[in-house]
Design brief:
The protein contains six helices and twelve strands. Strands 1, 4, 9, 10 and 11 form a five-stranded mixed sheet that branches. The protein has a five-stranded mixed sheet with strand order 5-12-8-6-7, with helices on both faces. The radius of gyration is 38 Å and the shape is elongated.
Length: 298
Amino acid sequence: PMYLHASNQNEPTLMQAAEKIAGSYAVGSGELQAALAEVGATANPFIEPQGWLGEVWTAAEYTRKFVPLLTQRPLTNRRMTGWRWVAGSSPEVDTYAGDLAEIPSNEIETEEVTIELARIAGGHRFDRAFIDFNDAEYLASYWSRMATDYARKTDAAALAKIVEWADTANPINTVNPANVLDAAAMGVHYLEDQYETQATFVLVSPATKRSLLSITAQDAPAFLRDILNIEPAAFVSSSRVDDGVGIVGAQPRGSFYEFGGSPIRLDAIALANGAFDRALFGYYGLLDNDARVFATVG
């Protein structure tokens, strides 16, 4: 604004001042009078604080799906012993004539049942700096991964035992079943008819389970669930089962014993090494309660 008044003819006008300022930065060709040294962000990565991502998610969570197919019971001793009636020799009753006649009787027999525990463990030695600097996220993730692997390994043990039991189970001759539901129904009715036991699951291959998607409401009416008395969620899949074969089972067939609190977490200081040890332990056992209440269907 000081240049706008005309009290002094020697003072430049606003336009003259602007042209003079612009001229001080440029030469006739419009180029800068002096070249500037370039400063790129890539060449100076340490002047900006880094953002923290935390643990990046990877597939690790696991929920056991085969252990729940069995009866779950507490493991209270290293060696557990029980008994059961020998098949076909449990106490029976029959009609009785009376009038001082002898009452009916039958031979009865029991047998010992023993379960040996299986042990599972894992651990690592850490520099104590992880604790001193409170790397809580890392240490918490470590426990989570260890517990997840424990769940995965014990579930695999339960599945292996179920498949083993199925190899000696009663094969049901399913002649031209309409679909997988029809085949499963034969297994369900077999357990009900032969052993008065309600089936609680049908273990099939992934491909066989996917075939359920092709079954229409006409093929599987709404009341079919009431006839089978088994929920759709009872169909469990595993690649350990061959295509076109199903294992129809009842939960009481086998038991999964597990020590209370498993997996157990333990920490110990290793002063001589400036470290601390972290380990996980678990105990479980599997018992075949009754070899009859499984059936394989095709």
